[in-house]
Amino acid sequence: MRLILLGPPGAGKGTQAKMLKDKFCIPQISTGDILRQAVKDNAELGIKAKLFMDVGQLVPDDVVIGLIKERIKQADCEAGFILDGFPRTIVQAEKLSETLDEMGSVIDTVVDLEVDADEVISRLAGRSTCQDCGGMFHEESCPPKAAGICDSCGGTLAQRQDDNTETILKRLDVYQESTAPLKQFYKKQGNLKTVTARGSVEEIFSRVLEMVK
Question: What domains lie within the chain, and their CATH numbers?
């Protein structure tokens, strides 16, 4: 099973991808996680990516495509994978299709998580992320048991630099310009499914499962 999760920042792609990963025992591939780790490691790629991430811009295609191509060729992806945050442009989608063609594979389902801008701002502005394990919390819908401390590992929680209102609005503009056209791209391929990403996490997951099954 090879899946792609589409949707604007804050649509819940990461949360749903983790649940799908546990359900189907296939890896979740998050370009955001890969890039943030590169930034944390102060790697050459991370330094280059950070310049774009800090202002809400997309990281250049050549950087992201290279990371993804190497990742999906690893052994744990033989039974399938979940792409979370990739592709984000038509060029990336075309390169992904080329890579999968070379591997004799295709994307089975593309799930588009739909949510409006006001909801996105509310979700992201109140979100904090564990600096150690990547766990996500929200001051209203999913607060940690102890302020500033991750429930899972005890790590420190912090708001991402790009989770402020000004940058969120820029990220939404970038999404509409560069990523939203992917819906038509995958609609033509016949594998696009749309899910309303409102309600509880469990309710949304139930809708996603109906689409991928």
Answer: 2-115+176-212 (3.40.50.300)
